[in-house]
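Dear support,

We are seeing what looks like truncated structure output for some complexes. This example has two components. We would appreciate it if you could run it in full and send us the complete token output so we can diff it against ours.
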Amino acid sequence: MPEIIEKYYSLKELWSSLNKLNKSRKYLAGGTDLTISLSYGEEKTELWIDISDIKELSLIEDRKEFVFIGAGIKVSQLENNPIVKKWVPALAESVKYYASPSIRNTATLGGNYVNASPCADGVLALAASQASVVLNLKNRRRTLPLLSIIKGPKKIDLKKDEIAEGFLVPKIKHEAVFYKMMARKRFGISKAGLCICYRANNKKLEYVSIALSSVAPSIVKAPKTEEFLKNKKIDQNIVKKACEIIKSEISPIDDIRSQAEYRKEIISVFLQRALQKTIG
Amino acid sequence: MKSENLTLNKNGKFEINFTLNGKEISAQVKPKETLLEALRALGYKGTKKGCDTGDCGSCAVIFNGKPKVSCLMPAFAAHKAEIITIEGIGSVSKPHPIQEAFVEAGAVQCGYCIPGMIISTKALLDKNPNPSEEEIKHSLDGNLCRCTGYVKQIEAVKLAAKKLAK
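Here is the complete output from our reference environment:
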């Protein structure tokens, strides 16, 4: 239970104050996940460090070969941002399916990431966009492949006091399709999701990157399917084979939201629809 | 801006100051309390507690100019914020045109979800006075109604837009 709340507005202030703080501590950004565990009495941490208004975490920047998206960006800020729309179309598209408008105004992209849920919509879009994560601990930065520190549901390999500062997405010209199966048409947690980033030329996939949600302990890529599709001219046979391959490289489970068999099937249907879309 | 600190007082509560419906408010809130619970404890019961997990939208308030669900925010996060609840939008004797539109369109049955719907509508129409049906559906995404369905409420938002344009 929080006893002290420290709120910082810059990284400089945060890093210079950390040494003076000697209690067990936790970062708070949007708080949409933490508030639930707090009200259920599951949060024992005494000191909460509010980083929701740290200015360096709220940047979206075009940086030569990459786009940088700050971890503190609220999900609603992604939908109409021109840099995001141009270079990370999957992320702009994902916002439509991402919780509700009133949650999107609160929740942050970085929170979606560190919460390490297998159904995280923002992480699904970032993974398909080949993003890396930039971690920061007292201005020592590590840039790592996005999914490399996610170890399972709610398990992420961050060092003590380290924060996710933001995400780097390579500037590759492409289009994106984002599909998510929910209990309702909008506003729900995914039963299964597929995001594909691609560039097609004369029905041939010159560039293809696929990520999947809710079919494994974390968001996963579909490397075998990607490898099979790369530089292939899309026709009915290729679509059929790709659907078989993608089903063979996932092993979802039955849980409260859906069944393994259904999840496999829906991923295959999503891939089929997405591939049809790539050829117009 | 300089860093800020909140520490539990001797009653085991945080003392916070914020602006509520245009008035400066000081309140003592429990560390586990959500903003929703704190608002209702202060007597602002127009903000409804539905699911308490962000699923239904009945507890939406306008927080620093944006609609947010108050059940997914710790109460201490309201420190120095500006909040508008349904009580700050209109009253029974002096309803807001959006509230009138909801009544006239027959969009209200049990009424429990309506404060959240009004908040979402207000946030939409402040930004976009003439929304398309798709835009209306998009902004009411997170407001669940268990009585009427959604047809009347979409009509209510259209009617509210007309009333406000006059």
